Amino acid sequence: MPAKSGTSGTRIRISPAARRRAQELGVDPVRLHGTGIEGALTVADVERAAAAPAAPLVRGGFDPAQMRLAIAAAMSRSKREIPHYYLSATIDFGSAAAWLAAYNGGRDPAQRLLPAVLLLKATARALVEVPQLNGFHEGGVFRPGPGVHVGWAIALRGGGLVAPAIHDADRLSLPALMTSLRDLIGRARAGGLRSSELTDPTITVTSLGDRGAESVLGVIYPPQVAIVGFGRVVERPWVIDGAVVPRSLVVATLAADHRSSDGHLGGQLLAAIDRALQSPETL
Amino acid sequence: MNEQAVRRLTAEVLAGIAPEADLATVSDTEDLREALDLDSMDFLNFVIALGEKTGVSVPEADMGRLRTMKGLLAYLSR
User: Fold this and answer.
1) Residue B23 has pLDDT above 90, yes or no
2) Helix, strand, or coil here: B14?
3) In terms of CA atoms, which chain B residue is nearest residue A183?
4) Are residues A93 and A75 in the same domain?
5) Which domain holds residue A65?
6) If we measure between CA atoms, which residue out of A121, A129, A190, A140 comes closest to residue A162?
7) Closest chain A CA to residue B38
8) Partner residue opposite B44 with nearest CB, options A101, A109, A158
9) Residue A11 lies in a domain
10) What pLDDT is stored for residue A2 in this prediction?
11) Is B71 helix (H, G, I), strand (E, B) or coil?
12) Regarding beta strands A154-155 and A226-230, do their DSSP bridges make them parallel or antiparallel, or are they unpaired?
């Protein structure tokens, strides 16, 4: 929900369809900001409000039913409005894994990094190179994001997920990103996220972690224009200098909005992520 | 630490990470990550918290030994 609430008693302008939708989704129209004619609330405003933080602002936990409705509204809108295209690339994670093992080796558990942090930083860096995928599709045009604010998809216990922003992820060091990630995951699960954290992301990254599937093709969170997915890091045969060797690999995928970019550009983003992961010491 | 203390500590630490998890339903040889649906951040936080309570800094290479109750008992009851 937007943080601002309307003055009680003020008559709100809302279309009958939007009012109906608000009732369906359990959204209180009084608290919303309309984008229609003379500030009238539209169906899109209501769905956006339902899709955004809804339950998350409640301290101490989420309402699973509300969350389901919010996800349903956002994802239905995405599939209805956004012509997705999909790309995937298998990336050699060997150098990154070796660098990570060496980094973590001499450190206390509290100082260690997870592979997710490298994936996050590599993606943020790649977005600086390919800024056309970092931002929003609004009113028929692409609006670049004000920074690389990566929405990190976090699964909640008992179902549902949220993707709050890690602001300026391209400029944070790996330890700082790890701290942000830990803090964000903790607060997401305890229900202590700020509403701005849920509306700020300029792109979403979903990483399935060490027990997840091998790849994930995401659904774009509107009005964002792209979502990057990482499967579980797996050990597989891989060819290096003509020889088959066991190697750590990760499948990176991109789902992007065809209204604002084409597969050629999307391929450049995945290539940039790959490049970044080949030099983990520079991340 | 004796066996009981290790079990109590494990339950206590896990309660902070996966509040709905019921350790009583998990056998000693089951992978806690699977049984309690812990992701890599959860498991790292679990190891950090164990370290804080016991004073044992678990090396990265030993992380795999803490995935089951049996492994925890072997590792911590020394």
Assistant:
1) no
2) helix
3) B41
4) no
5) 16-79
6) A190
7) A211
8) A109
9) no
10) 42
11) helix
12) unpaired
Searching chain B, which residue's CA lies closest to the CA of residue A185? B41
Q: How far apart are the first and last CA of chain A?
A: 35
Give chain B's mean pLDDT. Answer: 91
CA A259 to chain centre: 19
Task: Look up the ipTM and state it.
Answer: 0.90
Nearest-Cα distance to chain A for B72, in Å, is 16
Residue A176 is classified by DSSP as: H
Pick out chain A residues at pLDDT < 50: 1-10, 53-60
Main-chain dihedrals φ then ψ at residue A138, nearest 5 degrees: -140, 135
A103, part of any domain:
yes
Q: Is B20 on the interface with A (CB under 8 A)?
A: yes
CA-based end-to-end distance of chain B: 6
* pLDDT score at A19: 78
pLDDT tens-digit map of A208-217:
999 999 999 9
Count up the domains in chain A and report the number: 2
Question: For the domain with range B3-19+26-76, which CATH number is right: 3.40.50.2300, 1.10.1200.10, 3.20.20.140, 3.40.50.2000?
Answer: 1.10.1200.10
Residues A96 and A62 in one domain: no
Per-domain boundaries in chain B: 3-19+26-76
Residues of B in contact with A209 (CB under 8 A): 39-41
Nearest to B57 among A105, A109, A185 (CB): A109
Query: Phi and psi dihedrals of A151, rounded to 5?
Result: -80, 120
- Write out the two tokens for A281: 């010491």
Helix, strand or coil, per DSSP, at residue A33: coil
At residue A250, the pLDDT reads: 98
